[in-house]
Amino acid sequence: VQLQASGGGLVQPGGSLRVSCVASGITSSRFFMGWYRQAPGKQRELVAGIASSGTTSYADSVKGRFIISRDNAKKSVDLQMDSLKLEDTAVYYCYANWLHGYWGQGTLVTVSS
Fold first, then answer.
1. Sign, CA torsion 111/16/96/26
2. Are the C-beta atoms of 62 and 70 separated by less than 8 Å?
3. What are the DSSP calls for 5-58, one per residue?
4. Using CA atoms, how far apart are residues 72 and 13, in angstroms rounded to an integer?
5. Residue 51 CB-density burial (10 A; 0-12 exposed, 13-18 middle, 19+ buried)
6. Phi, psi at residue 31, to the nearest 5°?
7. How far apart are CA 38 and CA 56, in angstroms?
8. CA pseudo-torsion sign 33, 61, 45, 10
9. Rounded to an integer, what distance in angstroms lies between the CA atom of residue 25 and that of residue 57?
10. How far lies 101's CA from each of 2, 42, 78, 82, in Å?
11. Which helix or strand (DSSP H or E) is residue 79 part of?
12. What are the residues whose beta carbons fall under 8 Å from the beta carbon of 30, sequence distance 6 or more?
């Protein structure tokens, strides 16, 4: 199983970014996908998750600003990040749970003026 993430980059506070992830090697569409992030000196935390049913969950810190979505046919998950804040700066990791947990390679999101 491989998770290929893309997107991220540098954005000013209040701006928007989108990160995407595609899973390969998973033979079912019924698996959990999500995005975690890890800021310097902090533990990795769950930002948003989405089940194959479409049920979503968000960290309190991103509710109302981030939207997670998925395409079950493509086995992909996107995270649309709006109204970005300085504290959103982190490496964002795609995650999938299908029999086991799998991680993508991480993509850096930097929010800076």
1. negative
2. no
3. EEE-EEE-TT--EEEEEEEES---S--EEEEEEE-TTS--EEEEEE-TT--EEE
4. 32
5. middle
6. -150, 155
7. 20
8. positive
9. 25
10. 11, 21, 18, 27
11. strand 76-81
12. 52
Give yes or no for residue 28 having a pLDDT over 90.
no
- R_g of the chain computed on alpha carbons: 13
Strand partners, 66: 81
Whose CA is closest to 89, among 21, 34, 42?
Answer: 42
pLDDT in tens, 54-101: 999 999 999 999 999 999 999 999 999 999 999 999 999 999 999 999
Identity of residue 67 = I
Mention every residue, 6+ apart, whose C-beta is less than 8 A from residue 8: 17, 19, 92, 107, 108, 109
**104 pLDDT above the threshold of 90:** yes
